[in-house]
Write a structure and sequence with these properties.
Elements: H1 12-20, H2 27-49, E1 72-75, H3 82-93, E2 97-101, H4 115-125, H5 130-133, E3 137-141, H6 160-171, E4 174-178, E5 186-191, E6 196-201, H7 206-214, H8 228-231, H9 246-252, H10 256-259, E7 264-267, H11 273-282, H12 287-297, E8 301-304, H13 306-319, H14 324-333, H15 335-339, H16 341-346, E9 349-354, H17 356-361, E10 368-371, H18 382-387, H19 401-408, H20 416-419, E11 425-427, E12 433-435, H21 444-457, H22 465-477, H23 482-494, H24 499-509, H25 514-533
Parallel strand pairs: 1-6, 1-7, 2-3, 3-6, 8-9
Antiparallel strand pairs: 4-5, 9-10, 11-12
Helix pairs in contact: 1-2, 4-22, 11-13, 13-14, 19-25, 21-23, 22-24, 24-25
Length: about 550
Amino acid sequence: MTNQKPAPLPTPREIVAFLDRYVYGQELAKRDLAVAVYRHYLGLGYHHLHPLAADKAPVRATAHAPFGKQHILLMGPTGSGKTYLIRLIAELLGVPWTFIAATSLVQTGYVGTRIETAIGTLYQAAGRDRAAAERGIVLIDEVDKIASHGRSSGPDVSGEGVQQALLSVLDGRVVQVSTGGSSDYVMGEVDTASILFVCAGAFVGLDEQARRRRRGEAGIGFGARPGAGSARRVPTAVAGTDLPDTEDLVRFGFIPELVGRFATISATQALTVDDLVSVLESAEESALPRQQRLFEVHGIDLQFTPGALRAVAEEACALGTGARGLNRAVLRSLADVDFRLPELAAEGVTRVTVTAATVRGGSAAGLKVARTRPPAVRRPGRRARRKGVADHAPRSACRTVAEDLRAVALLQPEAAAVEAGTAAAATTADGEVFTYTDPRGLTPEQIRKRLDAVKKSLKFGRSMVSAKTWWATFEEENKDRLHVVLRTAEEMRMRDCGLDEFFRTYMDANTENIKAMLLYLDFRRARDAWERNRKPVGE
């Protein structure tokens, strides 16, 4: 932990200004989230300076929320930025956060994932700091999927049962959290009274249901819901005055008690083609900058014409997945040139321009290339000469980062023997001899102890909140394979790679494969070193 004094709570206007840097549009959701977050954390500050004894409050949780509970219900179609907005807010405030899919939850007492699991993950994201966890944010996604579908012959353990389970944590109660190789390994307790809960979902058909109610049209039968025809339609954006009220949500399948726990009900809008074009042009983490970095490694400047950007946006919009579809559309439009990227670099190509015809044709149609370097002389490499074959890619007259990376990409890591079950030693980036752990015969507690020691040596506690949240999720998903988590941490230690750098590598590499991420980490470091040391052409 650090004794550094945290920054003051941003005002709602400052929160919106921060979100504007990363998220295009969604003004209604930004404002509503900013106000709710401001009220919530201002209330925690008030409680810190003027604590109200629990026995003096109407209910125990009121002592932690002098301005009232500020839990949020956020509706909007997939790919409209609901999760991203919450992640950005958590990063801005420097508080831990976690998310869980409501579809995986079951009522307490039944086999399956319980809401307590999310609190445990939040506890890990906070570095097992109870005070930090109790000021965190929990995002429960796809909450619309736990709407009750009416009366049934048996208990509704994943519908109304889960809604009932949510009530207690939203109101505030002490939850036992556990982690590690055994679910009985209790790490501590967390009081949910000060945690901000955000429930999000697409709520397909709810907008139409609300419009029918305003027109005085009734559904058929008890708990009537939209038919199959309306369920297939993409939800339209809702204006502030068109947001559904308690009656609409109850008809949709939520118990009134749960609806009443949300002080703020807001919505994100479906992204239009123009919105998606703006995301490509301005968002720092969009699909286009990632591809441009890949081309830069090969010494090529990648550009999309305005028509190409619009064609990509139209394709993503047709997929119905919002901003998530941009990556697929960009990759598809570059499929042919990606295959020939090393050859293009060797031929002296320095710029590739993608046109609308390229995107719509899915091939090299309409692709424009520019050459400002002389093409390389094709000559076989050492391995090729031994085999009597020619290189697939000629050597460039101006060596690129990609060529340096190709030279080391297939080298086996020094610790490959560990994967076969034997221990091995390696030299870290700072010259220390480091021995990998042989997990054979070790108990989960022993592996956990070793993992904690490695994390401490890498100063995990000083990492960004988003990085710690990601790592906590990684640990939770592999709690029955702690040796994999330990090996990953030891690979980071061998490279003297902190969690922040490894998390950025994960974001940029766009892969879930740990080996691929480690190779990309080595590649990026080599590229940066090459950029620092290279000389301009002609010197």
